[in-house]
UniProtKB/TrEMBL annotation:
Gene Ontology biological process: folic acid-containing compound biosynthetic process; tetrahydrofolate interconversion
Keywords of this entry: ATP-binding, Nucleotide-binding
Family recorded in the similarity comment: Belongs to the 5-formyltetrahydrofolate cyclo-ligase family.
Pfam families on file: 5-FTHF_cyc-lig (PF01812)
Lineage: unclassified sequences, metagenomes, ecological metagenomes
InterPro entries assigned: FTHF_cligase, FTHF_cligase-like_sf, NagB/RpiA_transferase-like
Protein name: Unannotated protein
UniProt GO molecular function: 5-formyltetrahydrofolate cyclo-ligase activity; ATP binding
Amino acid sequence: MSKSELRNHYRRERELTYIPGSWLHILASAEFNGVARIASYLSYGTEPDTAELNRTILAKGIDLVIPAMQSDKSLLWYSWNGEISSLKKKGKIYEPSDGTPIDPASIDVVIVPTLHANRSGFRLGQGGGSYDRALTQIHGWKIGLIYSGELTAEELPIESHDQKLDAVATPEMIVRFTAKNS
């Protein structure tokens, strides 16, 4: 199947099997110890819910940054204080409406929206390649959020711009693909 066909298949599958969960357990992992800046996203629909995770990151006093998509589909990252009123709605998602973009190289951990992943650490996202391009600029630990059953042993179609994750997390566990660099 093509990437587009797989996305449609996995979206339908997710809608049929969607069960809300929590990903707070990832914050207790070693890769989150002592970090100053975490990039996350504002989930929508049946994506793994990041609201509780984002609130907890902010409550710990960690700088939380979220993306805003530019007209060329690149991502800029902005610090966010958790106030929905400071965001604008763009399509299905909320994005920062003002501020100064931060340097993506200063991000210690990035939480990546992931539709499906394989055991090699490659992910299938929503399409467009925005996150894959952004991940090339982020040197921090990269973890995708998925539901149980969305990690596959099957190969996914990989293109030259696709970036590997360091790990994925389900509501039950974290699966690491590479060791954290010290």
